[in-house]
Recover the amino acids of this structure.
């Protein structure tokens, strides 16, 4: 585990550089294979559908390859991409956000949004429920009025809204 | 002059009560968006775009472009008072703006920032008014080869002028092109890059990608950098305004130079962020007080703000005349044009006169209104950052999710938004520029189409890109921009680089 100059530990900069470059190279590889499948030559209506993805994929592989080589050569093992305590902070926001986006499929966007506000205020901000509940309720109400009533944009709903007759 | 007549007609459209109301609403919303972390010009406009379908196109673009002006103004507030650049182009403003605020000169720094923003934008609008009809008229003669050459020039300048690694710029751009290619191929009707997924058949909508890349990633970054904002008080009184204006007159050379740098960088799609840094660098190098920059010199606020606004505004010139946006926000606006059923490019000036000149007139009015609003209302906008971060973050998450959902009424897009949020967070931390990705995503289909059409015309011969003086010179210029770092090193070895 690389040591940070300031003393903390975490994920090294080089590690993430390499992982992202490899990911981009994989994406480039997929594009090249897709280009070959579609045909990257000359069709009766000009360059075939695979021509552009093929060459863009090649360029992506070349650019990411160069970044990869640079990252490994530089290898400043001291530099940290993110320290563990900071990553924990980020995950305390990102984790609920992932649950939130999954929850939208189940309970609809209104209930999920209320739950997200409650969690952020109670779990991260340490607010008492008597402050968090009104904020969550206000957000949901305003959203409902603006989208469903004012702009007539239907948002995903769940069992709660169906029970209320929407 | 026909431009002036057209412009007056534009004013009559922009001054309609509905449009004026939308203008004010847009500016206020835009400043809010600029002040809040996680909501910037690009994704603020992206989130609101689906709500504009019920409006007339000209009203819709007035609302959205005013959000853009507002966001440009708003970025300066947080830079100066909180040392948090609300937008990437206001990073350079923090260098001297925040020290000024710490020295108790917040009001002057804010006034200087707003006024120079206004002047920068004003110069750019003048350029747009008088230059864009010429460019559009010129571009009417463009065929597919010329269009591809212009796209090539735009993307090549991105790589050549990138401040970081050109390879990272290129990678970011290519990812954008690949994302643009996913879905139905418009020429042959074949499915590309969907790998059997029905969700991917729609392709990647740039609005969803923008909301994730710019919105979600910024929240994650703000969370990582600590959850509290500690800011200075910012209240502006008339005396401070007049005193600052008097002082600014002495720096008129800097203002003019910065505005020109900004216009140039905005039209060639280098964008507002490099423009602000370049202008700051030049101002410091040419100043007799260069060594005092960074400790709170007013020139250090004037130079980047003028250039950033000039660039941000003039980025609309290539968008309107050629259909090539000069900044991510301009790219989102361009996407809006397409969604409203308008064909971006030179024909706009012929077929949609009301739209074009209404928009240009609204730029003049919008920036005047914007200057007044921010000068008066700074304390209220700054107060927003005193709302506890967990509340702000939760609300921004919800707003982003709704924005991503409403694009296609697809809950799957919310998942995509999160994925791009994480990708954007990682890319930003590794100094990958995000603007090329967005531009390539928006322009990918049209770049590919013009490329294929050009080759179809020439029956597969690449010589079509050098077949006449016009297209050859654009391509050549593109190659010069692409290899600019190498060339400039060869040409100017002796000269010290502008830090």
């Amino acid at each position: 585990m690389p040591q940070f100059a300031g003393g903390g530990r975490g994920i090294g900069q080089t590690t993430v550089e390499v992982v992202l470059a490899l990911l981009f190279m994989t994406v480039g590889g997929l594009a090249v294979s897709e280009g070959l499948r579609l045909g990257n030559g000359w069709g009766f209506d000009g360059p075939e559908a695979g021509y552009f993805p093929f060459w863009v994929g090649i360029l992506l592989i070349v650019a990411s390859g160069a970044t990869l080589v640079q990252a490994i050569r530089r290898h400043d093992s001291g530099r940290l991409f993110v320290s563990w305590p900071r990553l924990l902070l980020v995950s305390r926001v990102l984790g609920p956000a992932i649950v939130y986006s999954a929850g939208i499929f189940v309970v609809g966007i209104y209930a999920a949004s209320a739950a997200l506000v409650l969690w952020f205020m109670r779990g991260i901000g340490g607010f008492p429920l008597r402050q968090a509940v009104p904020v969550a309720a206000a957000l949901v109400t305003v959203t409902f009025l603006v989208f469903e009533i004012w702009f007539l944009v239907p948002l995903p709903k769940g069992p709660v809204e169906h029970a209320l007759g929407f | 002059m026909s431009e002036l007549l057209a412009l007056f007609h534009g004013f009559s459209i922009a001054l309609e009560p509905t449009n004026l109301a939308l203008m004010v609403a847009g500016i206020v919303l835009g400043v809010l968006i600029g002040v809040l972390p996680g909501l910037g010009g690009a994704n603020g406009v992206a989130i609101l775009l689906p709500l504009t379908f019920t409006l007339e196109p000209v009203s819709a673009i007035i609302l959205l472009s005013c959000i853009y002006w507002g966001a440009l103004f708003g970025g300066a507030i947080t830079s100066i008072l909180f040392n948090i650049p609300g937008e990437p182009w206001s990073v350079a403003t923090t260098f001297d703006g925040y020290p000024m605020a710490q020295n108790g000169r917040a009001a002057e720094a804010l006034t200087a920032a707003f006024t120079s923003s206004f002047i920068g934008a004003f110069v750019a609008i003048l350029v747009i008014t008088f230059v864009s009809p010429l460019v559009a008229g010129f571009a009417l003669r463009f065929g597919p080869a010329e269009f591809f050459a212009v796209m090539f020039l735009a993307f090549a300048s991105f790589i050549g002028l990138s401040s970081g690694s050109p390879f990272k710029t290129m990678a970011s751009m290519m990812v954008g092109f690949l994302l643009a290619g996913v879905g139905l191929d418009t020429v042959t009707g074949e499915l590309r890059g969907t790998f059997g997924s029905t969700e991917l058949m729609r392709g990647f909508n740039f609005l969803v990608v923008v909301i994730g890349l710019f919105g979600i990633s910024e929240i994650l970054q703000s969370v990582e950098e600590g959850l509290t904002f500690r800011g200075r008080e910012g209240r502006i009184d008339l005396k401070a305004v007049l005193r600052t204006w008097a002082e600014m007159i002495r720096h008129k050379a800097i203002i003019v130079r910065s505005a020109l740098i900004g216009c140039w960088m905005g039209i060639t799609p280098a964008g507002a962020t490099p423009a602000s840094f370049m202008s700051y660098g030049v101002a410091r190098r040419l100043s007799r007080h260069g060594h005092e920059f960074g400790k709170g010199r007013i020139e250090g606020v004037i130079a980047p703000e003028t250039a950033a606004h000039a660039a941000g505004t003039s980025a609309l010139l290539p968008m309107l005349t050629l259909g090539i946006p000069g900044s991510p926000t301009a790219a989102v606006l361009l996407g809006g044009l397409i969604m409203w059923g308008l064909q971006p490019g030179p024909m706009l000036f012929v077929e949609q006169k009301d739209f074009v000149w209404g928009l240009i007139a609204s730029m003049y009015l919008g920036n005047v209104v914007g200057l007044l609003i921010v000068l008066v209302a700074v304390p209220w906008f700054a107060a927003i950052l005193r709302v506890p971060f967990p509340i702000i973050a939760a609300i921004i998450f919800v707003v982003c999710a709704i924005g991503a959902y409403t694009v296609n009424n697809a809950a799957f897009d919310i998942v995509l938004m999160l994925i791009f949020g994480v990708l954007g967070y990682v890319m930003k931390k590794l100094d990958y520029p995000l603007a090329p990705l967005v531009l390539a995503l928006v322009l990918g289909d049209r770049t590919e189409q013009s490329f294929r059409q050009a080759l179809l015309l020439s029956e597969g011969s690449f010589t079509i890109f050098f077949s006449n003086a016009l297209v050859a010179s654009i391509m050549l210029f593109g190659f010069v921009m692409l290899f600019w770092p190498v060339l400039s090193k060869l040409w100017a070895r002796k000269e010290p680089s502008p830090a």
In short: Residues 2-491 of chain B form one domain.
